[in-house]
Amino acid sequence: MTTLPQSDIAIRVLRAGPLALLQDRGRFGVRHLGVTQGGPADLYSWAWANRLAGNPWGSASLEITFGGLQLVAERDLDIAIAGADLGATLEGHPVPLWQRVRWSEGQKLTFGTPVSGLRAYLSVRGGFAAPPAMGSVACVAREQLGGFDGHGRKLADDDRLSTFKPGITAAPGITQAPPHARPDFREPPQLDLLPGAQIAEFTGRSLFDAFNTWWRVDDRADRMGVRLAGPKLQCRIRSLISEGINLGGVQVPPDGQPIVLLNDRQTIGGYPRLGALSPLSVSRLAQCLPGQEVRLVARSGESVLREYRAFLASFAS
């Protein structure tokens, strides 16, 4: 029988803010049960936060959307914050992002409002501890799975958060991300799209518009999906049998406005799809604020897979 590392209460929530969720890599092998994967909306920033904190791949981190969170340490902790700049301060002083930082007992860590990007990831050396549900602690509120209580509840005021104690033999590892690894979330992103089986059913004009338009991120966006606003896309398919939906799938409903499906998406859907964004482009889209512009770029599966494998390999060491 596997023995889990020891854990104890390390953080108290003073103010929960609009949305803070526990996320590990996600929940896999359960979609046939109608259960979605969950996990970090921005896999890239989540992976860096864990690496910088000294945690292995898959460790649970806190995904903080829009900010408004205030925490106090109940013991000394080593942490890393990656992803969006949400104006994080430690006892009123700005917290350096994309590097390991000491958070001393009694100090208040406060997240303000977005400066750039939408979601920040807080990782604690040792990783957050919570009871797994279906093999993961990833929080999916709609399905009432995961999170610190195992039932998909977002953080609330006065919650106490537990962390695993890091192994005494753990190597220090990299403690600061190089400049080239830190995305500029203020820049309009170009998102890699792998064309799908139904792309030929869209009209020629629609295909031209799809890849030659700067789309605007609609304010109707959450962890299920992001709606893009722009020219109306038209598809010759009138009805479609529901089929499985992958991360990043770009559905086009009857109103012609694409919806990019994210981690908490439904497991099946019946709208035609242009294709799917690459996992790293999904991560980049998850950091876009409403009103930000994005562009779709058609890519081959081989080149996208090569880049994604290189990304995964860089975090396996």
TrEMBL record:
Domain Carboxyltransferase: 32-315
Domain of life: Bacteria
Family matches, as InterPro entries: CT_A_B, Cyclophilin-like_dom_sf, PxpC
Coiled-coil residue spans: none
Transmembrane segment boundaries: none
Pfam families from the UniProt entry: CT_A_B
Gene Ontology molecular functions: ATP binding; hydrolase activity
Record has Hydrolase as a keyword: yes
Keywords tagged on the record: ATP-binding, Hydrolase, Nucleotide-binding
NCBIfam families given in the database record: urea_amlyse_rel
Name of the protein in question: Allophanate hydrolase
Native organism: Marinobacter fuscus
